[in-house]
Design a protein that fits this description.
Layout: E1 2-6, H1 11-20, E2 26-30, H2 47-60, E3 70-81, E4 87-88, H3 102-112, E5 122-132, E6 138-149, E7 165-167, E8 172-173, H4 179-185, H5 187-203
Parallel strand pairs: 1-2, 1-3
Antiparallel strand pairs: 3-4, 3-5, 5-6, 6-7, 7-8
Helix pairs in contact: 4-5
Length: about 210
């Protein structure tokens, strides 16, 4: 079975990836499950740059027995709020400190938008995914979802900033959606489906 090593230790993110790519005959492992424990310095200036930095770092660290046999994939994603000039952006995971709970982060962002009208609360989730194929070929895609920052934290189904990110189409936060609803419209869902097409081209698989 073909294998993808995904450069993440985030179990929630890994679960989403499994769901969206489940129809492909790929085994998907996190880097830790593959025995790769490295510190990656994400010093890029865009989501795309950081995702490729992660992919290249893991590809370089592959054990000899996996070199030339597996795909390495990485994503970099985050929330960009128009009123806050794109914050937290590429620093989304590190906003207010990596060990700070998202309940605190989310409430802080809501507080910073106190008194701001809905039309000025526009925001988007961005996800850039990079993949390095077994032969070393590199591929990059990006997906976005437009929405706005709500006035309260709501929902238990998502993670990260999902409880404050609202989508008019559903009239709720992405944390209040089912996994199927969210994956159908999410930034990561869009990016993964685009990467899925790239993998199929590489493998010469028909849809």
């Amino acid at each position: 079975m073909r294998k993808i090593i995904f450069a993440t230790g985030n179990k929630n993110k890994a679960k989403e990836i499994h769901e969206i790519l489940k129809d492909l005959d790929f085994e998907i492992q996190t880097m830790k499950e593959a025995g790769i424990n490295i510190d990656i310095v994400e010093d890029g200036t865009t989501f795309a740059e950081n995702s490729m930095i992660k992919a290249r770092s893991v590809f370089k660290a592959l054990p000899k027995e996996l070199k030339g046999k597996v795909y390495v994939m990485a994503d970099d994603s985050g929330l960009a709020i128009d009123y806050l000039n794109g914050e937290p952006g590429i620093y989304s995971a590190r906003y207010m400190g990596e060990d700070t709970s998202y309940d605190i982060k989310n409430q802080n962002l809501i507080n910073r938008l106190d008194g701001v009208k809905k039309e000025d609360r526009g925001a988007r989730f961005v996800c850039a995914i990079s993949c390095i194929c077994p032969n070393g070929e590199e591929k990059s895609v990006e997906g976005t979802i437009e929405g706005y920052i709500g006035w309260e934290i709501a929902g238990e189904n998502g993670f990260g900033y999902d409880p404050i990110f609202y989508v008019d189409e559903y009239g709720c936060s992405t944390a209040q959606m089912t996994a199927e609803q969210k994956n159908a419209i999410s930034h990561r869902g869009k990016a993964l489906r685009a990467m899925r097409e790239e993998l199929m081209k590489y493998e010469n698989i028909s849809g």
